[in-house]
């Protein structure tokens, strides 16, 4: 067994990370840090948008007693503590180390002390993240020793205008004296498992090509078992302090929620180094009894060193959190996340665990020897199954006002009952009005048809923030029954543009399904950007971030059912993107171009992407005008976007969220005018106005004009300019599958009560009108044998 150590006071060297999510940036960032225990800040890591090819850059770090609020433009209140020389950046999403040799002095903080920090450069290379909160400054990251709050971006050097609230991207390295824990009490020898009965399921990955403090992942046992220990992968050969945490259900949505986890192991053990498995002895692991197919999750973490190893696959891998990574006849081990700081810090996904699970199979021979007689239930009486849940993802990456998606019931024995949902938002402690709608069948073709939907939840909840579930109480949710084999659509929408969802590959793809008989399947759907319950501005494909609560209902004698009529299939849609390929040759405030619909179906312009050479936040407006462009002023056009976006480099596409989508009729043309609040939009030299620059099967984009000022006027328009970017669109198409398909199989009787021969009955096809031309051919079949 591992040795037992007595508690003692030791010097602890560790770190606290905020995030490296980026998203925006400028010349600097100000924020406060609060010491929980006495400590010394020894160095830092920063997030910069420059790489090694950009050469050395100047970085300055200042600190001040108490808060930065009120002294943002008072240089005399601040003390410069770094840097003695210039640094070379490591680029986006990577740590640029500002090591102790660069610091003019280290900074001591007493217990409870608040200290202001200002990190700046004479170039706009400092990356930070937006906070959706309205006020500064809530705690964003914390450890047992230190807290870091949200702060403010600085839009000029050295003491420029402030942008708030913003989140510093970086890491503080610090030292503190702390009590080192003793090991947990060993399990009594008599209760330890027989070593000969212990089995092991390893993970297939052991490259350890990435790592940090910890790894979280889910396990699904295929048999009833007791988990008695595990191994992990570390690059260290020193004495390590390691903890193992466990919870029932998936880790997804609970990555930073320590209160939902139970610690099952603490040990000080010697790391075995790269490519060797370091074992946690069963003597120091509280055994976990697990039923077959009971999903559980583990969090294995080092306490003082980012030397836990796991595997990161190539960027083009299609693996997502929750995919099966490794399997044996006894269990599945799933893809998880790496955890960047201790404990329960920021995480990276997907990551592949480098672990072994040790377990003992339990005896299942104590089942009843006599069969219970089957009881036939009366019609309409159901047996309700266990309450369950299934999580999609909390990886975020995108967001808006809502998400639409389909759920399919594939149980062969019962119907699916959806009892509630949790969603993902970046808002914390803010009141959120959430509405949930549903409709029978897929959402596809009905995203803009509010009359097709019924509301099942309308309540107000408080946001729980990034990577946590924001719960819609079951008492506020009207149960939705999905019959076996059927599909049901759902639309979750909130009153702020802070519902998080993720990008995906294709609408309708299976995103996640339950392990037990695939009884519930959740599919890729759409994000919505138009507002609360707006049924507008669909962005596809997107994956709702959240958790579905459900159970099955069973009935041995089904109630009588009447056959439903075969109605016309709903219209479907095709989504596409057309990107102009051209080197940047010009640029200014804005560009005018046109989009023409080449087909016979209606098209909606659903999104625009542009290039800008400005790094940081800036304003953008988009206008549309039916027909060709003649240099009309803005007043004659319809505004479809007015927002703030952020540039990170001149080579990076920037998405413009559209408040309203632009409809382009068959054969019609729409002019689009994009303008920024500064002369930093990039475009190219083109041909004459109206000359086609690029086209595909559905649309063509034509050259137009550059705009050299703001707002638009005839004096600042220069013709022969080309839009450089992407136009996203959706084609509305009829969903009638093929020639000869039956569109209705029942005749609607005349509603008169006449006893005479029925003078007329009618049969309606559809008035959806998704396509059109000069005429239509179709067949009519008499399905009755005895009548003409």
Which helices and strands appear, and what pairs or packs with what?
Blueprint (H helix, E strand, L loop, with lengths): L7 E10 L6 E3 L1 E8 L3 E8 L9 E2 L2 E6 L13 E4 L4 E2 L7 E3 L8 E3 L4 E7 L5 E5 L8 E4 L3 E4 L1 E4 L7 E7 L1 E11 L18 E4 L7 E3 L1 E8 L3 E9 L5 E10 L13 E9 L6 E4 L7 E3 L5 E7 L5 E3 L13 E4 L3 E4 L1 E4 L7 E5 L4 E6 L21 E2 L3 E4 L6 E3 L1 E8 L5 E9 L4 E13 L13 E11 L5 E2 L8 E3 L4 E8 L4 E5 L6 E4 L6 E4 L1 E4 L9 E7 L1 E9 L17 E8 L6 E3 L1 E8 L5 E8 L5 E11 L11 E10 L6 E3 L5 E3 L4 E8 L4 E5 L6 E4 L3 E9 L9 E6 L2 E9 L55
Antiparallel strand pairs: 1-17, 2-12, 3-11, 3-14, 3-15, 4-9, 4-10, 4-17, 5-8, 6-7, 6-11, 12-16, 13-14, 15-16, 18-32, 19-27, 20-26, 20-29, 20-30, 21-24, 21-25, 21-32, 22-23, 22-26, 28-29, 30-31, 33-48, 34-48, 35-43, 36-42, 36-45, 36-46, 37-40, 37-41, 37-48, 38-39, 38-42, 43-47, 44-45, 46-47, ...
Describe the structure.
This protein has 4 domains: 172 residues, Jelly Rolls (Sandwich); 155 residues, Jelly Rolls (Sandwich), CATH 2.60.120; 170 residues, Sandwich (Jelly Rolls), CATH 2.60.120; 160 residues, Sandwich (Jelly Rolls). Helix content is 0%, strand content 46%. The strands form 10 sheets. Strands 2, 3, 6, 7, 11, 12, 13, 14, 15 and 16 form a 10-stranded antiparallel sheet that branches.
